[in-house]
Design goal:
Layout: H1 3-14, H2 26-34, H3 38-57, H4 66-77, H5 79-91, E1 94-99, H6 104-125, H7 137-140, H8 162-182, H9 186-207, E2 222-227
Antiparallel strand pairs: 1-2
Length: 274
Amino acid sequence: MMKEEITLWQKIEAFRLDDPDAGFQFSARLARENGWSLEYSHRVIAEYKKFIFMCCISNTGVTPSDPVDQAWHLHLTFTRSYWVDLCRDTIGKQIHHNPTKGGVKEADKFDGFYNTSQKLYRDKFGIAPPVDIWHDNDERFSDINFRRVNLSRNWVIKKPRLSVALLTLLMLVVACTVFIQADGDYWASLIAVGAVILVAIDVRRWKSNPNRGKNNNDNSGSGCSTAGCGGDMDSSHHGGHDGGHSGDGVHSGCGSGCSGCSSSGCSGCGGGGD
């Protein structure tokens, strides 16, 4: 890291998300909302800080891992902590959350930004990102079928692995076939076996699909864009979360050189001031 980057990173690393006066800490909320252990939640927060640092220094674009993105989502709901304490008073620029617009071009762009994130991580921190937080591209952009569930009213049962599920289905069909054959109903037996074959073909086709790991889902990626140069921000305006308003509290002296790259990823100030 350069001297300015070291200073910036020390500020971000020292930033506290847990309020010592709060009975329900940020880290505990993050753990509860995602079903994580508290220890894992603390590790994700540490990676989230590294992501914010990369947002500030990247000249191209960066995209967070999904766990890091969840920490970012939650922090955005703590509006004063995020927009005032972090963006204005700590890093001196606004980091806006920009979800993907969907489509193949956006998918390819986020895939590239995620590669950039991991390369920049290695360059600046001298180590590889932890694989249990920064998942590979295939998992990052395919394992995204999430939904908010009320655990007081619903059971959540983990699905078995695909191979185990197929084996279980096969055993059930074989058992049914034995009973059916005992009754002499061979047509039903053939239908059951045919169903297993069709499922196996469908699974094989899914595995061979070259796009199954691509981020074509509209909610599969997000990035950040920066605004503000060197702390030159108006404290009377703050940006909003997804679907809300975005603040424009940047003094006109900074100009367009500080705008982020398109609708995803993030870039630092393009023209002097930082």
